Amino acid sequence: MLKNILISGAGIAGPTLAFWLARYGMRVTVVERASKIRTEGQTIDVRGAGIEIMRKMGIDKIIRNSTTEEEGIKFVDGDNHIKAAFPVHAVGGPDFVSEIEIVRGELATILYEHTRNNVEYIFGDKITGIVDRDDRVQIKFAKTTDRDFDLVLIADGLGSRTRELVNSSYFSIPYEESDGTWARWYNAPGRRCIALRPDGRGRQTTRAYLAICISENIFEKSDVDNQKAELHKLFGDAGWEAPRVLSAMDRSTDFYLQEVAQLKMNTWSKGRIALLGDAGYCPSPISDMGTTVAIVGAYVLAGEIAHHKDYKDAFASYETILRPFITKAQALLPGAPQIANPQTQ
């Protein structure tokens, strides 16, 4: 039986995978380049099978007690007039808002607390070298002493990508009474979007989201200060609550920017190394399926590793079972990023 497994990445997929592997009796190590669990991040959704897996892990009640209690989403114009509204439990309506909405950092913290007594976590370090032998994988770390593992499972984010020309930024801003308990979505001319999602449950923050379709990635090699400066140029005349959002962005300490992208690969494993979550099959942030895909992928991969003596059979079965689910999760409408960020109002 495979007993010594390394996971790279302590976001959502990594700790979920670690939980199930440890439950199956394996010795699990998680390495994370950050110095601690990252508590920042946007509001994320957990849907369908992901909720059921959380229940099986015994953390669904904890998660529900940490949700934002978002009531739905409102699409507004520059004067904050509501053009359309979709509550969480809209009967027969579009599923814009999930039953479980939670700040990403809070879910990551819950998963870490639920696993840290049975899993070895190494923070502030990263893999710098991998040698895949016939009977083991030799790992070189930046700081930790080199070690051997039976398998290495990569769950630390998006690598090579098929690109969508949308860049989005996330950060928290002070809550104001006008934020209420609904998410608000505003489209400005020029394929720009501003969304505000209150954290709820008495928290004094609102999660801000800025997105824009552009013909080239002007942010790729910029530091945070330059990224913020570019966003000021791009959103300065956007209207609605742009002045408030941009002003608060300058003071935010949890700002990050990413490219909206999907990752599609022909295979998710090579030798004794396998990928999961965004590292293997990122469905794109606009799909609202990233968290659920990470949770389901971790559950399936752990189960197949536990129930196959040969890791090659385990990885093959993992792909066979999961790929139809991933294909469906990645099936965006043609031109979806542009639809979400129209040229005009």
UniProtKB/TrEMBL annotation:
<dbReference type="Pfam" id="PF01494">
    <property type="entry name" value="FAD_binding_3"/>
</dbReference>
<dbReference type="InterPro" id="IPR002938">
    <property type="entry name" value="FAD-bd"/>
</dbReference>
<dbReference type="InterPro" id="IPR051704">
    <property type="entry name" value="FAD_aromatic-hydroxylase"/>
</dbReference>
<dbReference type="GO" id="GO:0071949">
    <property type="term" value="F:FAD binding"/>
</dbReference>
<dbReference type="InterPro" id="IPR036188">
    <property type="entry name" value="FAD/NAD-bd_sf"/>
</dbReference>
<protein>
    <recommendedName>
        <fullName>FAD-binding domain-containing protein</fullName>
    </recommendedName>
</protein>
<feature type="domain" description="FAD-binding">
    <location>
        <begin position="5"/>
        <end position="325"/>
    </location>
</feature>
